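Quarterly update from the structural biology core.
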Amino acid sequence: MRSGGLEARKARRCGGTVKITIDVDKCIGSGSCEMIAPGIFEVGDDGLVQLLTDSPSAEHHGAVRTAAASCPTQVISVDD
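Predicted structure, tokenized:
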């Protein structure tokens, strides 16, 4: 199990009523989320996805959902 802020990165609020949850332990660092929503997701130096902002504007919610759907290991969940 990885440590170092796992809980801080595991669940963050995403503007309005949208909530992003990331299962960092299953992340393989493919970077698809970063390519789809570069201002929201980034693969860090540790090879794991990170949220760059915990409150992206509503105009980014579609990209967040697309990034979640495109994740090869389905580690990103988006809940309304």
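The beta strands are 11-14, 18-22, 41-43, 49-51, 76-79.
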